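HUMAN: Would you supply a protein with fold tokens?

ASSISTANT:
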Amino acid sequence: MIWLITILFILLGLGCLFLVIMQLPGTWVMLVLGLGAQLLMEHVIGGDHPFSWGWWALGIGLVLAIIGEIVEGLAGAAGTKAGGGTKRGMIGAFIGGIGGAIGGSFLIPIPIVGTLLGSIIGTFIGAVIGETTGEKAKQVGDSIKPAMGASLGRILGTTAKMFCGIVVWSVVSGGFIFIAMGK
């Protein structure tokens, strides 16, 4: 039964990684699944079996998930700033990235592709809108460099978040394999 729970988590965890690519909270879903698997294993095994590795793996996964969210959230804004953008451009990039991910999922009904393209395009458009509006509005031509930086930042942020998701999946899966091998 322990191996079944472990294999099920490994497979469902892989599915959660696709959610991360689609700009959905796949790492968080994976951690909730891991918590459920950990509690189920404790119930199935019972007794005095040491489960500290599973709890440690989930704790490490939680920290990595938080880091991934922070990096992804700040990457588009940092890219805007690196391209010479303003705070308004950074906010526009952030909002545009979220809106683009949602819109891209509906407009391009190809899983993962629509969400990623929508997010990148939305980040670009949001940064341009942010840079070309407000008190110190730039010309559209002057907003292209910050918008390109925002899009590149978004790509790098999503890549970093995906990397964190893979590490979370590896650590938690490894923890469950360790428990299953000991039983």
The chain has one domain: 2-182. Residues 140-182 form the longest helix (43 residues).
